């Protein structure tokens, strides 16, 4: 049995990072421009799914001919169901609420 680092199992990709909405866009159209309405992943830690920018490729990207130039990044995608999970923090309150409700029902029945 060999050890595989968790990063090797993560979902990686290349995307166009737009500073105005702190999102990485990963889908291109037939002309090679990134799609604003395509797959996009926020880079803020409390969002799920989200992407973590790893390295810039040194390539610039655009969303339209003559549009603003943006940096292209290699990224790792974190999802709720993926091999690399999102942080649990955002689910804790929901789990505590449900657990509290079920405990309250059990106590009131006794």
What's the count of strands?
5
Side by side, the strands of the main sheet go 3-2-1-5-4
Compute the number of helices: 2
Point out poorly predicted stretches: 1-9
Which sheet architecture does the biggest sheet show? 5 strands, antiparallel
| Intertermini distance | 50 Å
What portion of residues is helical?
10-25%
Number of domains: 1
H/E series: HEEEEEH
Q: What average pLDDT do the residues reach?
A: 79
Which strand-content bin applies to the residues?
25-35%
Task: Tell me the structural class.
Answer: alpha+beta
Shape: elongated
Radius of gyration: 19 Å
For this entry, give a set of tags.
elongated, 2 helices, five-stranded antiparallel beta sheet, 110 residues, disordered N terminus, alpha+beta
What does this structure look like?
The structure is a single chain. This protein has 110 residues and is α+β, with helices and mostly antiparallel strands. The protein has one domain. Helix content is 23%, strand content 32%. It contains two helices and five strands; from the N terminus they run αβββββα. It has helices spanning 6-9, 89-109; strands at 11-18, 23-25, 40-42, 50-61, 70-78. Strands 3-2-1-5-4 form a five-stranded antiparallel sheet. A hairpin with an 8-residue loop joins strand 4 (50-61) and strand 5 (70-78). It is elongated, with a radius of gyration of 19 Å. Mean pLDDT is 79; it is low at 1-9.
């Amino acid at each position: 049995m060999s050890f595989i680092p968790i990063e090797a199992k993560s979902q990686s990709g290349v995307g166009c990072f737009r500073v105005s909405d702190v999102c990485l866009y990963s889908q291109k159209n037939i002309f090679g421009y990134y799609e604003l309405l395509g797959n996009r992943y926020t880079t803020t830690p409390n969002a799920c799914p989200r992407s973590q920018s790893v390295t810039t490729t040194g390539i610039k990207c655009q969303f339209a001919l003559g549009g603003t130039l943006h940096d292209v990044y290699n990224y790792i995608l974190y999802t709720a169901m993926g091999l690399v999970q999102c942080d649990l923090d955002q689910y804790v309150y929901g789990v505590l609420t449900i657990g509290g409700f079920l405990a309250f029902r059990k106590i009131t029945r006794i």
